[in-house]
Specification:
Shape of chain A: globular
CATH superfamily of chain A: TusA-like domain
Largest sheet of chain B: 8 strands, mixed
Strand content of chain A: 25-35%
Helix content of chain B: 25-40%
CATH superfamily of chain B: NAD(P)-binding Rossmann-like Domain
CATH topology of chain A: Translation Initiation Factor IF3
Number of domains of chain A: 1
CATH topology of chain B: Rossmann fold
Oligomer: heterodimer
Largest sheet of chain A: 4 strands, mixed
Strand order of the largest sheet of chain B: 3-2-1-4-5-6-7-8
Order of helices and strands of chain A: EHEHEE
CATH architecture of chain B: 3-Layer(aba) Sandwich
CATH architecture of chain A: 2-Layer Sandwich
Radius of gyration of chain B: 18 Å
Order of helices and strands of chain B: HHHEHEHEHEHEEHHHEE
Distance between the termini of chain A: 27 Å
CATH class of chain A: Alpha Beta
Number of strands of chain A: 4
Strand order of the largest sheet of chain A: 1-2-4-3
Structural class of chain B: alpha/beta
Number of helices of chain B: 10
Structural class of chain A: alpha+beta
Number of domains of chain B: 1
Number of strands of chain B: 8
Shape of chain B: globular
Strand content of chain B: 15-25%
Radius of gyration of chain A: 11 Å
């Protein structure tokens, strides 16, 4: 299975909750249903809370990956407008 | 429009709500709401709409701030005693949120100016303290097709209803004509618990935000009654009256009229039987 290519990427390193989710949610709002958002972040709490909140809002979490000592990458597929 | 960094922070708790989001917050920032009265109800309505980022707020009142107002009229202060209420409120709102433009009218609504004023706004809020204004505002909203959030308070009891012309009842469906002068006790005589307009005004502001966002269920064809002493909320149905003189099938009121005001009575239901299901005065305890 090939790697999912994101349609859009945001870097929210340095931001803390709830601004991490605010940025992620605004990015998803601006996308079409079916598109995938890549999120780069370094706030540990957000690595847990953003996927949960996205699912609560009806979106699909494709990936949560810690890529180095400080950073995570999330892939979120927009399923609901 | 894109949010500024300050706006992202200021409205973050709205933006993360599924029912609001960035799109809803932009609707709020573009909305235009007019508040009738800068008193007990107008102060909390304006305060919360300003905090919510409603972009343009108009407000009218022809009174000055008095010491006896400060027990409940939270946009004014001892520093603004003697000043026109609308300017006092404008200062308070603008200090709270610089995103909001406040158009203050230090004067009275009349049959000659009301349509021009209301014409520039999306939603009207009635926080007036007298019947002539209440009927003038209702009739103008019906004729212009403007949604109206109506609130009233007296002593420990409050009432809220939302009028969406063409979709539900109007104020005259509830109370067809103003009561005779002197029948209903004046607001100075009757008294009011200071926090009561805060509750009722907050409910009105909630209805306004829902109208702007297009979310939730409104108090259409319903009157919400709040009793602060018993701490009860109760809804009564308010059917649209097909024979209503202003919003009925064959309206007899087709032009605005000014009623002579020589009384001041915020609680319209106090002395009369309204046209509600059950047919009794809605604020009386069961």
């Amino acid at each position: 299975m090939g790697e999912t290519r994101p349609d859009r990427s945001i870097n929210i390193k340095g931001l803390v909750c709830p601004h991490t989710f605010v940025r992620a949610k605004l990015a998803v709002e601006d996308m079409e249903v079916g598109e995938v958002l890549e999120i780069l972040l370094d706030y540990p709490e957000a690595a847990r809370s953003i996927p949960k909140s996205m699912e609560d809002h009806g979106q699909k979490v494709l990936k949560v990956e810690k890529i180095n000592e400080t950073d995570w990458v999330l892939l979120i597929k927009k399923e609901k407008d | 429009m894109e949010f500024t960094e300050d706006q992202l922070q200021r409205y973050s708790r709205h933006i993360i709500l599924p029912e609001v989001g960035g799109k809803g917050q932009k609707k709020l920032l573009k909305a235009r709401v007019f508040i009738v009265g800068a008193g007990g109800l107008g102060c909390p309505v304006g305060y919360y709409l300003t905090a919510a980022g409603v972009g343009t707020i108009g407000i009218v009142d022809n009174d000055e701030v008095e010491l006896s107002n400060l027990q409940r009229q939270i946009a004014h202060s001892t520093k603004t005693l003697g000043r026109p209420k609308v300017f006092s409120a404008k200062e308070t709102f603008e200090a709270l949120n610089p995103d909001v433009r406040v158009n203050a009218i230090n004067g009275k609504l009349t049959k000659d100016n009301i349509k021009d004023i209301f014409g520039e706004y999306d939603i009207i809020v009635d926080g007036s303290d007298n019947f002539p204004t209440r009927y003038l505002v209702n009739d103008a909203c019906v004729m212009l097709g403007k949604p109206l959030s109506s609130g009233a308070i007296l002593r420990f009891e409050g009432q809220v209803t939302t009028i969406v012309p063409g979709e539900g009842h109007c104020y005259r469906c509830l109370f067809e004509t103003p009561p005779p002068a002197g029948l209903v006790p004046s607001c100075q005589e009757a008294g009011v618990l200071g926090v009561l307009p805060g509750v009722v005004g907050s409910l009105q502001a909630t209805e306004v935000l829902k109208l702007i966002l297009g979310r939730g269920e409104l108090l259409k064809n319903e009157l919400l009654l709040y009793d602060a002493l018993r701490m009860t909320f109760r809804k009564v149905k308010v059917p649209k009256n097909p024979d209503c003189p202003v919003c009925g099938q064959n309206p007899t009121i087709t032009e605005l009229q000014d009623y002579e005001a020589d009384y001041c009575a915020p609680n319209i239901a106090g002395a009369r039987s309204p046209n509600i299901a059950g047919g009794r005065a809605p604020h009386r305890p069961e």
